[in-house]
Write a structure and sequence with these properties.
301 residues, single chain
């Protein structure tokens, strides 16, 4: 049991956009009630993380960063999470909580089940937030505010560990929800993963417009910019997501392909009513989602 008045000790592995934003948020909300260490790859990243106030200490020595941690927050690309846990385990004290920001959950949990000792607890998490920019220099203290944050409760951690973690994460201002692991990965595919693949496809379509490319670029406005904003996201992160949630992503991409096929058929056959109904139905659904977001104070962006 931690003595009264002693700060919670949090180690952030990967002090980039997500990890750095978490650090900024928690230091702002908890002040001296939390001490944050950060694992960074370069001296420049360490200096910037400390300068911005995202961490109290930054280093590249794993033992120094995690040995006193009550909670370890992992925020590297998904395929780096399990190898990193293997490196951390020898230095963790009994009762340490490991959580993460990985965008896919089944892959990570399948790998971790055979690795973790009984006195180290994993609680899978996924803050549904981000920006098209990466790195700690892009971190924002309000990045989590009003955004969905999934906590997966079926990874075997005791209730006390969940309570301890949520006592810290509640300061993010996120809207917390729970999902089982399989449903999380399916829903994340529809809401996040496929939209990123699609945004990149639209940019690829532009790149392949041949002799019209320069003329098309002159016409770019808000519609194209807004729709493709997320195509500027980190390529390593999204390649890992596709490799670790491939079944759901490919299934939903095929569903999207089928929908586009229906639209192609309607346009080719000059079926204006079918095309009108397609746009009207999607408008009605999106408008209702935005109304619900306002009612529940959820940031829809």
């Amino acid at each position: 049991m931690k003595p009264a008045g002693e700060p919670v000790r949090l180690a952030i592995i990967g002090v980039g956009l997500i990890g750095g934003s978490l650090g900024l948020c928690l230091k702002k909300a908890m002040g001296e009630g939390i001490y944050i260490t950060g694992l960074c790859r370069t001296q420049a990243s360490m200096d910037k993380a400390v300068e911005l106030g995202a961490v109290d200490f930054a280093g590249s020595d794993i033992e120094k960063v995690v040995s006193e941690a009550d909670i370890v927050f992992l925020s590297p690309p998904v395929l780096q999470i399990v190898p990193m846990v293997k490196k951390l385990l020898p230095y963790l004290k009994p009762g340490t909580i490991i959580t993460d920001a990985g965008s896919t959950k089944q892959y990570i949990w399948q790998q971790l089940q055979g690795l973790l000792p009984d006195d180290i607890y994993y609680i899978a998490g996924h803050p549904m937030t981000g920006r098209e920019k990466s790195g700690v220099a892009s971190a924002k203290a309000d990045l989590f505010q009003g955004k969905a944050y999934v906590i997966v409760e079926d990874t075997g951690a005791p209730a006390e560990a969940h309570e301890k973690l949520m006592e810290v994460l509640k300061h993010t201002g996120a809207n917390f929800t729970t999902l089982d692991i399989r449903k999380h990965d399916r829903c994340a595919s529809v809401i996040s993963h496929v939209p990123h693949v699609t945004a990149a496809a639209l940019v690829t379509l532009l790149n392949r417009s041949g002799d019209d490319l320069e003329s098309c670029i002159k016409l770019i406005g808000g519609g194209f910019t807004d729709t493709t904003r997320i195509a500027s996201s980190n390529a390593d992160m999204w390649a890992d997501i596709c490799m670790t949630n491939g079944e759901a992503i490919t299934r939903h991409l095929k569903d999207l392909q089928s929908i586009l096929g229906e639209v192609i058929t309607a346009i080719d056959s000059q079926d204006r009513q079918a095309v009108h109904d397609y746009f009207a139905a999607s408008k009605a659904r999106r408008d209702s989602l935005l109304e619900k977001a306002v009612e529940k104070r959820i940031d829809p962006n």
